Every structure is written in C-alpha cells, then in structure tokens.
Amino acid sequence: MMTHxxxxxxxxxYHLLLERYGERPLVPRREPMHELISxxxxxxxxxxxxxxxxxxxxxxxxxxxxxxxxxSADLAHEFRSARFxxxxxxxxxxxxxxxxxxxxxxxxxFLAHLPIDEAIDWLLKLPGVGIKTATLVLLFCFAQPVLxxxxxxxxxxxxxxxxxxxxxxxxxxxxxxxxxxxDPYVLFNFHKALLKHGQQLCRYxxxxxxxxxxxxxxxxxxxxxxxx
Length: 228
Prior knowledge:
The structure is a single chain. The protein is mostly helical. The protein has twelve helices and no strands.
C-alpha cells in the first residue's frame, strides 16, 4: 500500500476509534519524575499494580534521595505488586542516581526545552528506559509530538496493516509518526484510543471482532474472519 493510502487509513482508524472511545484532553496527569518512574514500573504490569508499587515505594522511602540509597532488596519488596520487581528496583535506583548526579536534583523538567531527538537520547541513557517510556514521558508531560508504541498500539497497527507484521515496536515509533500529523493532541488520542481498543476488543490471542468499528479496514479480519 502506498504511503498516502496508509496516511488516509491511519486518519480513518483514528476517527473511527475516537467515535467509539471519545477524545481526551492532553493534560499532564503526573509530574515528570512520577511519570518516568511509574512508566518504568508499568512494564507487563496492570495500572492498578503499578500505582500500588509506586505508592508503597514512596511511603517507605519518602524522597528521591532515599530511593536512590535504598537497598535493592528493600525497594524490590515494595515493588512486589509489579512484575519483575528486582530488575525494576535496580534500574530505578540507578536512574534516580544518574539524574541527581547530572542535574543536581531529581527533576527532569529541563527536557521540555531540548530538541526532541536530544531529549529522547538523554532519556534512553537511563537504565531500564526504552523508546516507549521516553516518548510517553515527552508526550504526556511536555506535549512533544512523539508517539509511544505499547503492545496495544503495536498489535492493532500490525493487524490493520498500518505497519508490517514483522515491524518491531521500536521501528513502529518512526513509521507511525510518518502517517500521523505532527500534532501532540492527535498523537496522544491515537495512543489512548488504540490502548482502549486493545484492552477491550482487539486483544492478544482472540480479538472480539463482531462489534469492532475497524473490521472493514482490518487486514487481520479480512484474512482470518471475513473469508471463513
């Protein structure tokens, strides 16, 4: 499919999902350090368990310096509601230490004033931070025109044919940006709409296709369901 056709398809998918799930304002829900650490905790973990882990951490270690200096085993214990608590504890301790060492305080607000590529590169040098976490912090906290590609965005983009079936999530960040307007509001709502759709209908394994507003435009549906 030509790029201009994929651009039109991405716009159509965006609007169809907004009709179903609604639009959301792009307003920061958490301050940047909270967003960064919570996103690191969220890997393969439910939102509720991520929040529990963050609150337990903060209750026991009530400053970023205390978190930096906490024994890894004690920090991992507070992360027990999250998946993989031990490596997350190590990465969060190391990331907080690096931020404080470089910036003099646990504050990443300066990222709002960096060029996007520089801000992404700075975040990627933090232990345990990948492109999804970096772009999520920049979009959610600083309204930068980037697109976090989580498992839902990746899966739905592949099933609908916006990206190829073998395209990695990291590569998808760049390919999907080429199909969407460089507008933080649009990118935020595209991310949120595909997240909701992946949680409710386009699930891993067996998607619920009957009520799906995308099925007429979905490569996976046309190949696996419509031709049955």
